[in-house]
Design brief:
By secondary structure, the protein is an all-beta fold. Helices cover 0% and strands 37% of the residues. It has no helices and eight strands. The protein has strands at residues 18-22, 26-31, 37-43, 49-50, 56-59, 65-69, 75-76, 85-87. It has a four-stranded antiparallel β-sheet with strand order 4-1-6-7, with no helix packed on it. Strands 3-2-5-8 form a four-stranded antiparallel β-sheet, with no helix packed on it.
């Protein structure tokens, strides 16, 4: 007997990849949809950090943290005063 994986757990090959980088060192926390912290620290811009739809990002400098969706140019989470939890959606 074989079981097929739940189709809701399989990522579509058409789903855009989501990642965050930083222009300069910036502290941030990332939590998943269950509100569990999956990353907390300083993002230094050297390598992107993968995020998933439903994740939330709290950045000390949202103007420096850039969200990349697929092949689109990266965009800042917000302006310098937009310090709050930012929920990640494919349309973010």
């Amino acid at each position: 007997m074989t079981t097929e994986p739940d189709s809701s757990l399989i990522q579509s090959s058409e789903a855009p990849s989501l990642s965050i980088t930083s222009r300069e060192p910036s502290w941030l926390e990332v939590r998943n949809a269950n509100r569990e912290t999956v990353y907390e620290g300083t993002l230094d811009g050297e390598s992107p950090l993968a995020v998933n739809p439903g994740d939330e990002i709290y950045a000390g400098r949202p103007d420096l943290v850039l969200l990349s969706i697929g092949d689109n140019p990266p965009e800042p989470l917000g302006d310098i005063s937009d310090i709050r939890w930012h929920k990640i959606t494919p349309e973010s």
